[in-house]
Target: Splicing factor U2af large subunit
Amino acid sequence: MLPNMFPLTSGQFGALPVMPIQAMTQQATRHARRVYVGGLPATSNEQSVATFFSHVMSAIGGNTAGPGDAVVNVYINYEKKFAFVEMRSVEEASNAMALDGIIFEGAPCKVRRPSDYNPSLAATLGPSQPNPNLNLAAVGLSPGSAGGLEGPDRIFVGGLPYYFTEAQIRELLESFGALRGFDLVKDRETGNSKGYAFCVYQDVSVTDIACAALNGIKMGDKTLTVRRANQGTTQPKPEQESVLLHAQQQIALQRFMLQPGALATKVLCLTQVVEVDELSNDEDYQDILEDMRTECGKFGPLVNVVIPRPSPDGEHAPGVGKVFLEYGDVESASKARQSLNGRKFGGNQVVAVFYPENKFYEGDYDG
Model:
């Protein structure tokens, strides 16, 4: 580790000699003064990282500890392409968090808190959020332009099974809207998921809806914990209830895709494409059936279209409100899902998921 340390001398960056009492203070605050920088290009070294981050901190007006350079130390892990960059002060480290996504030597870098960061302790040492008046435009950034993962609308997503991929988790979260930022936390040595993530929605009004709909849902062998990262559980407002109900219906279907071994099949299940009252009328039903055959047949050989209808006596009828598409091969079904999932239809957003072939052939449409 020692050869990779880069202690900056006072002649280089204006650092002052450290007295014993100052050394003790620095040690106590180091967790809050360091930032993790990931995705470094192979050409980077301690000197270039220190010079670059000192320059951009000055350019955005992030230096608060007086004249001189904000960076006092850099440690690089060349194999993993990340660095710990130590700032002079807690406030400057918090300002550096606004640099997430900064382009360094042609590569976009992740800027995060280190794993030993203690939020509750750090809160007693100085500001934990970047100054909102930083001039990020000076370095080609805008608030939330990259990770966008700071602030009161940041969501913590815990209890994720380790086999979930980033794409699967994003797809689940995007049931509620586009994400401004997303970060699946991974072990820095192995690259494996640690089972939790953070996200922020572009439309922050859906934050509480997403938390309420996702929190407590069972995924595989785990139960999700979803809440605002800096708050306890919040309840949706009354006017959000209908949106919440719709979201929960979507989540129930999305779960199919997130189960272990939930591979692509030849059968797709669509929701949010038909209204139940339209299915009772024979003429309307035939029109819908033909429309589905025509539109969905564009993606490959469509073997069968099944649209369950309501029972005349009012009894529960399996699968009402869903449309099942059986294709001749998995490739065609995959093309259809890619095109149809998320498409707007009659003001609703279509949800398309692969459906187990054995359930479909058995006439089990309630899955």
